[in-house]
Specification:
By secondary structure, this protein is mainly alpha-helical. The protein contains 8 helices and no strands.
Length: 194
């Protein structure tokens, strides 16, 4: 049996935390659950991370960074409308392939809002830093056009809501989205809006 390094274990914890926090939220997920998923003890978990909040922030940061990378890779060498559609398609693929990424994004917004309400402004500050990177990536890909950036991200948040609520691809609520932003049917094509 090959022993994992501390860095490999840390990576395993972040991956496990992404799934567990996506499904249970910050307050509904115990560090014991994360430790069990990874196959380590809780004391070992806390040798890798100082506390539960640090684990959550690492998972949230990874989720945002993977989204940023998807946008950046999709838009590489493109501009304007071509970049917009490429990023839109990449985001649809990202959340279709791994629903936990979508759920973790939403759990992150809830956790940050709850922390802010409780007076913990550092937590929100860390989350906002990742989101600013996401904003800047989209903004630059869309030619630094504030209106286009805002519209793209607004559509993205609406897509998050519709997908999280389980609206099927053929539902009329998807009408009006450009094709690259529509969810894909199980067979691969975009749904036809009714």
């Amino acid at each position: 049996m090959v022993r994992m390094s501390a860095e490999e274990r840390r990576e395993s914890v972040v991956r496990a935390a992404m799934v567990e926090f996506a499904r249970g939220g910050y307050h509904g997920t115990s560090t014991e659950t994360i430790a069990k998923r990874v196959g380590v003890s809780q004391p070992y978990l806390f040798r890798l991370f100082p506390n539960k909040q640090a684990i959550f922030l690492a998972a949230s940061d990874r989720c945002i960074k993977e989204t940023v990378a998807a946008f950046r890779d999709a838009a590489e060498g493109l501009e304007g409308e071509a970049a917009l559609h490429a990023m839109s398609g990449a985001y649809q693929a990202l959340i279709a392939e791994d629903r936990d990424k979508l759920l973790l994004q939403m759990q992150t917004y809830v956790a940050a809002a709850a922390a802010e309400a409780a007076g913990d402004h550092e937590f929100g500050k860390a989350v906002r830093a990742g989101w600013v990177e996401l904003y800047d990536t989209v903004h630059l890909a869309l030619g630094a056009d504030v209106g286009e950036t805002t519209t793209f991200l607004a559509y993205g948040m609406l897509i998050n809501t519709l997908v999280a609520l389980g609206f099927p691809p053929e539902d009329r609520v998807w009408k009006g989205f450009y094709e690259s932003a529509q969810p894909k049917r199980a067979g691969g094509g975009a749904a036809a809006a009714e």
